[in-house]
Design a protein that fits this description.
Structural class of chain B: alpha/beta
Order of helices and strands of chain B: EHEHEHEHHEHEHEEEEHEEHEHEHH
CATH superfamily of the largest domain in chain B: Thiamin diphosphate (ThDP)-binding fold, Pyr/PP domains
Distance between the termini of chain A: 54 Å
Shape of chain A: globular
Radius of gyration of chain B: 20 Å
Mean pLDDT of chain A: 96
Oligomer: heterodimer
Shape of chain B: globular
Structural class of chain A: alpha/beta
CATH class of chain A: Alpha Beta
Distance between the termini of chain B: 46 Å
CATH topology of chain A: Rossmann fold
Strand order of the largest sheet of chain B: 3-2-4-5-7-6-12
CATH architecture of the largest domain in chain B: 3-Layer(aba) Sandwich
Mean pLDDT of chain B: 96
Strand content of chain B: 15-25%
Number of domains of chain A: 1
Number of helices of chain A: 12
Largest sheet of chain B: 7 strands, mixed
Number of strands of chain A: 7
Radius of gyration of chain A: 19 Å
CATH superfamily of chain A: Thiamin diphosphate (ThDP)-binding fold, Pyr/PP domains
Low-confidence stretches of chain B: none
Number of domains of chain B: 2
Chain lengths: 322, 344
Amino acid sequence: MPLSKNELMEAYRRMRTIRTFEEHVKIEFERGNVPGFVHFYVGQEGCAVGVCMNLKDSDSIGSTHRGHGHCIAKGCDVKAMMSEIYGRRTGLCGGKGGSMHIADFARGMLGANAIVGGNPPLVIGAALSAKTLGNGAVGVSFTGDGGANQGTTFESMNMAVVLKLPAIFVFENNGYGEFTSHDYAVGSKDIAARAAAFGMPAVKVDGTDFFLVYEAARAMIERARAGEGPGVIEVIAKRWHPHYLGDPETYRSLSERQALSQNDPLVKFRVRTVQGGQLQAQELDRIDEEAIQLVVAAISEAAAAPFPPESDLLTDVYSSYP
Amino acid sequence: MSRKTYQKALNEALKQEMRRDPHVIVVGVDVAAGYTSRAEDAPDDQEGGGMLGATAGLIQEFGAARVIETPISESAIMGMCAGAACTGLRPVGELMFVDFLGVCFDQIFNQAAKLRYMFGGKAKVPLVIRTTVGAGLNAAAQHSQMLHSIFTHIPGLKVALPSNAYDAKGLLINAIRDDDPVIFMEHKGLYEQVDEVPDEPYAIPFAEANVVIDGDDLTVIAFSKMVHVAQAAAQRLEKENIHVELLDPRTSSPLDEDSILESVEKTGRVVIVDEGNPRCGMAADVAAFIVNKAFAALKAPVELVTAPHTPVPFSPTLEQAYVPSVEKVAAAVKRTMAYPSARA
């Protein structure tokens, strides 16, 4: 089913917003304006957006420590995200979570998760809720090639099959789990192939091609919604930046790093839609401009926003205590 | 009202809450006595449930959509329950033995416990994890621990330790209705304990200690099965004209600090009895609190009667020496009463 013009524009907008957001946060981080750790999603925009364009607010996603892209793809407010990364009270989580714990339950974003392999069990829980409440929703877990080897991931995959849950496991193979390559750490060198052994279907696609990701996700998600059970999608797209800002990147060569930007999901999307006549270059240019304006405004608002007062330290540990 | 076992009381709590609220589900290994894998010749009236029977009859009444038997995958079970809790359900997950917490602790202490806080109050996790604790059944080192102090230490978790059938039903109903993650610790040696238990549902609030015995001479604070050990010691000591006040906190998190302080201000002497290991345990925690807040009232040092700093041994004679005994509690009380003259 072809995407409408509005959907194509929205997809591009989300990908461009992620790219611009990450690039600007990088600059602010290097200036010392962002506390803690940041992990950038640049190069992988096609993965999050390709999947999330198939989802509604009532669907749930779980993410990793590299969660800005999934947040934006799921429709989280960009200004509130920036405030959160800046640790301000106006942040999506009141400044209590930060970059690695960004969440927005109103949008079905169950959180970035700083524990590798931490989200798959939570996502199958969201899928269990959807199945039990009969609301037709799905749960989508985003996990990296590193998290693909965690016991929690394997347990969740088996559990999803046994209980026939509407859960999709998206494995984002960006080449490296921290400093260690997928080729070393995945013994079989084939994440998607594990799915069959667990009893569910899998598909492996080029994650730098939004359309391939979108189609693969659409089929898997519709299948899950129809009650046919879980599935795996492995999307392959290198991350352009180091694991965290400051990582010396001895695990990949200079030539490999230089070649990364030759496989740009945004460029591929633009070339295809403009040459295919679905969109015009100036429409995309306008979106590029608007993304910059949005992110710049988000940064200036975040930088000016108040920090949480000390009394916020003690709030929201519990719903009530005692 | 009728006499029921602790096991029956738990079962009633689950049934009544599941009838009241369709969002309550039960999840775990063998919670339906292996219903998923019944042999063709299994009797139709088979109603077992769970390792110790607390979930008996649930799948027959509520069906497989609400009583979910799982593979043995504790991380997936606990995480799935946490994820379901923050997306609209009220799961009661079962961690068959608390000793298995190591297999799934991240999903409990880093995920379930912290989602609400990390997400600025936007998530709520109305999750109950029921688990069995305690020694005395010769189940050996990896099936006999208490570990309640580990959960108590974690901000975001609540911990309940019912010592009798009446408390078991009321605290479990309260736990299911509570909007926070509750670790509900059932002592395996108490499952056959019998008490008068109301037939209708009732909720016992957390942080409300039970004054098991009123007394003026000395305050004994005991957790879980140790309440019964302390009670037996108190009965012996009555004959020696020592009148012990026995407090059962019922929950270690939140803790009824007011009742503890009130009792200590009255008696000035304290013995704490806990089956956990001594380092960083509940006895140490409560003692520090008492010494900090009621120092002026104290007439003697606070005595702690706990298990030793060892794993739980298998051999019955050794296990008996491991678990705090009536004799050890009575001796601690007498030492405290005699202070400063008799200090071991």
